[in-house]
Write a structure and sequence with these properties.
Helix content: 25-40%
Distance between the termini: 44 Å
CATH superfamily of the largest domain: P-loop containing nucleotide triphosphate hydrolases
Number of strands: 26
Radius of gyration: 29 Å
CATH topology of the largest domain: Rossmann fold
Shape: globular
């Protein structure tokens, strides 16, 4: 391996395109991952590790097991495969215990890179037949005795795997990571030394090094703990700042309109659960205070959070309209589909009330006039952006539902008294703060008095109340821990490919009864990810062959807003029998008549996300069914998916998901519910409590943090990066 000691050491701000052997084309691919500088690479963490810490001898290798072996090359040649028209490179290796064959396809350059007599480190899955043991397309590295520059990073020890992009290999990412390591000497450790030592944490430089190239599992565990503490500590420092700001604010006192609320609840087509009633009462009591409410409402998928929010919104709007200046409320949702769903839901819930409701997304601006209960659709009118914004500022709109477009535009309210954020974990704390802090959304009349609206956040993230209180330390927490009465558990089954015809027959029987179905696919279109089902291909198959007599439609995130909304309206109106979709339907879509769901490539999703998908069905009076298809027949995958057939608690599934990923997959865990966290998870109870206590201690000593300039600067950078642009 080439010696790079003559190359000047890169610093943290060095563009990666200036790193030897990276080049412009490769740098462009790295930039797709957000890696532009050496520092970016240092903080781009692997998501799992292959354990090649034991070097096997050839006679110890077992078929079907991924292993590492160091052997000497004794023969290598290229040949042309006639039938498949491809180049095949065959090599033979030996050690003191035996011989091993290696085969690569369409990589003829390997025969030029390797020389007879080279000592090679190989890693890959072992095959065995009558001709002996072999490796197909193994990763390889030359071993040069006595060269520290040639340490094996691809085939020995705990080998990192990173999230990549098309055309970028794991070898290229590991190479850049290794070339970035010398710049660690310039990295400042911004956490005070006293906190590091008192909590038994390792230094930041050591943590970064061990994350990319671990010395062992214990060292990796220590590195992960330090990096997780970093994230949680910053979150807690930010929360302490928000608490400080909140003490200086006032909010409009909203009295409880008991008779009106009781009548609203009495007229609902279902009975509220005890948990819903308790949560609603906590929210209503908060809004009676002159201090801004900051409450998080947590409830599993389908637990009925929206109707609790409706009670709070109704009370807020009625209090203003009955007692003084007209009040306004806003609800922000993460997707246009969910915003439109809420718009339709609230038009129905508030039927008969004199409220003007608006929908504001990137693609739609609709105003619904006072609802008389006769023909709610006739009162809907499209509006220009200018007209819509004027209606908000003038106070003629009472309740506005929208997406993050609400905090991207110059939206000013006449008298905003209540802000609700749905699926708040998809926004992040900074957007929650921005919604009520006067940036993007503010009340021009109330701002002079430093008034702030009450804030209600809602989340289906499976997180226990004790942890939520610690993580969201600037929020009060309410939990809906029971499902609506009469709700039937979704029957979930794991199916092999040979059962597909039987599954389709069962779906057809349910469709004949008037029910509807979802089909979820991992991809929008065909790609280089061989074997994964795509929405467009699956739609074509179902539409033209399997269910040609049915009305089928497809949905994905790249479609125009108007088209997505049209399809969802038609599906809700039972004009579409089967909806083929990506994960765009994951949150909030409520079609009670949809009782079946087929999830293709189920192994490509985490258990928590599969649970979110499943939450789209089982919302009506009919029994619902979910079928999971996966081509991956490994015992681990099948066992993980089988859990979903037995467990229906979101929190328990999240815990099991983390367990199944195992110690080799401890980074990049999705669906934690905290989008700003890359390393920490919602099960880091002990670390979170430590971070919370240390943040409180620092603010007790010095609220400005000026006593710790490195920490003060890091927090400023963090807040700047985290703000929604």
């Amino acid at each position: 391996m080439k010696n790079y000691k003559h190359i000047p050491m890169a610093d943290l701000d060095t563009p990666i395109r200036n790193i030897n052997r990276v080049g412009k084309a490769t740098a462009n691919k790295f930039e797709k991952l957000g890696i532009k500088t050496v520092k970016d690479m240092l903080f781009y963490f692997p998501f799992r590790y292959d354990d090649f810490s034991k070097n096997f001898t050839i006679n110890e290798l077992k078929a079907g097991v991924r292993s590492n072996v160091i052997a000497r090359l004794i023969l290598i040649q290229n040949r042309r495969a006639r039938k498949r028209r491809m180049n095949v490179t065959e090599a033979l290796f030996e050690d003191d215990t035996g011989e091993l064959k290696a085969i690569w396809f369409n990589q003829p350059f390997i025969a030029k890179n390797l020389r007879i007599g080279d000592l090679i480190s190989l890693s890959g899955k072992i095959s065995a037949d009558f001709s002996g043991k072999s490796m197909i397309s193994p990763v390889y590295e030359k071993i040069i005795a006595g060269s520290s520059e040639a340490k094996a990073i691809h085939t020995q020890g705990l080998v990192p795997t990173y999230s990549a992009t098309k055309g970028l290999t794991q070898k290229q990412i590991r190479f850049l990571a290794s070339r970035s390591m010398p710049a660690l000497s310039q990295l400042a450790d911004w956490i005070p030394e006293s906190i590091i030592s008192e909590n038994g944490l390792i230094g930041l430089r050591q943590a970064i090094k061990e994350v990319h190239f671990p010395s062992g599992w214990q060292q990796l565990k220590q590195a992960r703990e330090r990096l997780a503490f970093n994230e949680l500590f910053l979150v807690q420092l930010r929360s302490q700042q928000y608490k400080k700001e909140a003490t200086a604010k006032i909010a409009p006192r909203i009295g409880f309109k008991g008779q009106l609320v009781k009548e609203f609840v009495r007229n609902l087509p279902f009975e509220l659960t005890i948990a819903q009633r308790k949560s609603a009462w906590q929210i209503l009591k908060d809004m009676e205070s002159p201090k801004p409410m900051s409450r998080l409402l947590i409830g599993d998928v389908g637990s009925g959070k929206t109707v609790v929010a409706a009670i709070a919104i109704l009370n807020a709007l009625a209090a203003g309209n009955l007692e003084g200046p007209a009040s306004q409320a806003v609800l922000m949702a993460p997707t246009e589909i969910l915003a439109r769903q809420h718009f339709n839901t609230f038009l129905d819930l508030f039927k008969g009330f004199p409220f003007r409701i608006g929908l504001f997304t990137g693609g739609e601006r609709i105003i619904a006039g006072a609802i008389d209960g006769q023909n709610k659709q006739a009162s809907e009118q499209k509006a220009t952006k200018k007209t819509f914004l004027a209606s908000i500022a003038g106070g003629s709109l009472d309740f506005i539902i929208g997406t993050h477009a609400l905090i991207q535009e110059n939206v000013l309210f006449r008298r905003l008294v209540l802000a609700v954020i749905d699926e708040q974990h998809r926004f992040g704390v900074e957007q929650r703060h921005r919604l009520t802090a006067g940036s993007g959304l503010s009340s021009s009349r109330e701002k002079q008095n430093d008034s702030s609206p009450h804030l209600l956040s809602m989340s289906a993230t499976p997180i226990p109340r004790t942890l939520a209180l610690a993580y969201f330390s600037d929020l009060d927490v309410s939990v809906i821990n029971e499902m609506p009465k009469g709700r039937k558990t979704v029957i979930t089954r794991l199916a092999l490919e040979e059962k597909r015809d039987a599954a389709y027959k069962f779906i057809r029987e349910r469709l004949a009864e008037g029910r509807q179905a979802y089909v979820i696919c991992p991809l929008i279109d065909e790609s280089d990810k061989v074997g994964l089902k795509s929405v467009l291909a699956e739609y074509d198959k179902l539409h033209n062959r399997v269910f040609s007599d049915m009305n089928i439609a497809y949905l994905h995130g790249k479609m125009k807003s108007a088209e997505k909304d049209r399809i969802m309206r038609e599906f809700a109106d039972n004009k579409i029998n089967i909806l083929v979709s990506t994960s765009v339907i994951e949150v909030g879509i409520d079609v009670p008549n949809a009782t079946m769901m087929v999830i293709e490539g189920a192994d490509r999703f985490g258990l928590a996300q599969l649970h979110q998908f499943r939450g789209r069905i089982g919302r009506g009076q009919h029994q619902s069914y979910c079928v999971l298809f996966s081509d991956n027949r490994s015992d681990k995958t099948q066992m993980r998916l089988k859990v979903l057939t037995e467990q229906h608690s979101g929190f328990e599934l999240a815990k099991l998901d983390l367990k199944f990923r195992g110690p080799g997959e401890i980074f990049g865990i999705e669906q934690t519910g905290f989008p700003e966290l890359k390393v920490a998870t919602l099960f880091d109870h002990f670390l979170l409590q430590k971070a919370k206590q240390e943040a409180e201690n620092l603010f007790t000593i010095d609220r400005s943090l000026s006593s710790w300039p490195e920490l003060q600067q890091k927090l400023l950078e963090y807040l700047k990066e985290a703000h929604f642009e």
